[in-house]
Amino acid sequence: MLWLLAHNNERPLGHGAVAREVWRLYFHWYGVLSHGAFPAHDTLWQYPPGAGAVLLAPGLVPGLSYFQAFVALTLLTDALVTTALARAGGRPGRTLLGAALWTGGLPLLLHLPLARYDVEVTAFAVLSLLALSRSPRACGTLAALGALVKVWPALVLLGLERGRPTRSAWLSAALAGTVTLAALVVSFRNPLAFLRQQGGRGVQIESLGGTALSLARHAGWRGRVRYRYGAMELVGPHVHAVATASLALTAAAFALLLVWRVRARHWTAATPYDAALSAVLLFTVTSRVISPQYMIWLLGLAAVCLTSRHTTQRPVAALVVAATALSSVAYPTFYAEVVGCTWTGCLLMLLRNGLLVTAAVLSLTRLWRATGGPRSTAPDAAAGAPVGAPVTGSHLARPQLSAAPASLKGD
Q: Taking phi first (over 0 means left), then psi (-120 to 50 degrees means alpha), and beta for anything else, what does residue 181 get?
């Protein structure tokens, strides 16, 4: 990945567009942030205020340029995630498949992960989930800090089993999020300016709606591609309707997840992991934007799932890996084809997004069946315990006591 980054000016690697995000855009934002303000009038700034802290961090590393420090910190974060996954997978009843997926899956995106801050965001979600069994408070705090950087890590709290530890995690998340946000509001001007830019976004060509509109061009639709809000978006007739439909599908996905949570009856130690992957998959496929770096999120959550022998998401993880590989073919290798809405570009996006939709549907289906069917009898933490030994811990499945029903890209 480092070698590819050093040679990113080659044509198949995007003529330097991947690395340009850091040394031009991020470094520009760093200059604005270092003067105590968020880039309020920059339409490319679409991130919660916590992202400012991540973008300021490379400037604190002595002896390195901003670009070098950014890559170095990303590599350190990658190492931290790998170590956490390996330690979790090395415990009794666990597996190292998660660490293997993260280590082998991330390079499928070529050098892109080293030139985006999504590895750092994913680290918050991964560490949050892995901390759950030992410290629900740490789980909630890490999820809240991640949400302040890029919103979606808050979804990892959705699958926590009902009970005191979950209330503790949610309370810690609310407290940590409120305190950190207040500190950022006091320290910087225009901390909520990103909301204006997010509201104006349209349909990006790599999204599900964008794929449909790109195919529609071959059927006579008179739209075109334009660079807006840091991404290549489709503009023309009916685009607003497609964007509205995407938002409606996102709302429907959230409602569906809430119904799952209300109806779920049986948890194992893997259920919070599986629910996090399912939730982020649903929100990804219904989004108006599906940038290739979003695959980093899914790889991290799939890796957490695979640390448990009781996960329901192994086939989903395989689909995520396949979609990741196709994402790097689409960007940067054949991005001109995607932007031009050629048949090659359309086919690439149709295959990639088809894999993601399949993964999302399969993920929720397997999660729903696992949490609504017969109770599991051997959660992770109980693996290897003597027959008849009691299993304790609120995050483990409880014994059944009655016969009650069991029911450039700036994205």
A: alpha
